[in-house]
Amino acid sequence: MDSNFKKKSESNLIAANHLKGTQIKCYSAAVHCSYYSVVQAILHILIHLKHRTMESLTTESNKLNQGFHETISKNIRKEYSETVNKEKASAFFISVSELKGARANAEYEDIDFNPTDANLVFGIAQNLIKELKEVFKY
Fold first, then answer.
1. What is the C-alpha to C-alpha distance for residues 50 and 78, in angstroms, rounded to an integer?
2. Sign of the CA dihedral 47, 52, 55, 60?
3. For residue 22, what pLDDT is reported?
4. CA proximity to 128, closest of 103, 106, 104
5. Cβ atoms of 20 and 26 closer than 8 Å
6. Whole-number pLDDT of residue 83
7. Which among 43, 63, 68, 124 is least surrounded, fewest beta carbons within 10 Å?
């Protein structure tokens, strides 16, 4: 089943690839889109495959007094652990956290991202999405 989150994930990955290209050279924007392609893939899985709702995820985030992205990351980690194993889930979670950090630096720090940075983050996003597709069969 295609969902808008799945479509957004795919679009953001395409945009990231385009933005990091030699013609445009928008490396920080490519990092942003790479990260959000993973977030939207996670939302697709949680909502369309694991039957969570945005409302339940938001409520959980508010109750735990944590950010929404942290909440969905912890939820996908739990689902991943139950589907595969805790070690692989932890490794996945660490990679998502690294992506989140790169996205925060791209948006909020006075850092000049370069092609190497953008390509590295894009590659991590591609690998995470590939892994999600393999594990959750979407």
1. 11
2. negative
3. 83
4. 103
5. yes
6. 93
7. 63
The encoded tokens of residue 81 equal 């652990």
Contact 13, 125 (CB under 8 A): yes
Q: How far apart, in whole angstroms, are the C-alpha atoms of residue 52 and residue 49?
A: 8
How many residues does this entry show for the chain? 138
pLDDT 10s digits, 82-132: 999 899 999 999 999 999 999 999 999 999 999 999 999 999 999 999 999
Q: Which two tokens stand for residue 132?
A: 């999600």
What is the rounded distance in angstroms from the CA atom of residue 64 to the CA atom of residue 123? 32
Q: Which residues of 76-98 are buried (b: 16+ CB within 10 A; e: fewer)?
A: bbebbbeeeeeeebeebbebbee
Backbone angles phi, psi at 98, to 5 degrees: -65, -40
Q: Report the distance separating Cα 95 and Cα 69, nearest Å.
A: 14
In 64-114, which residue ranges form alpha helices assigned H by DSSP? 68-83, 86-108
Whether residue 1 is predicted with pLDDT greater than 60 in this model: the reply is no
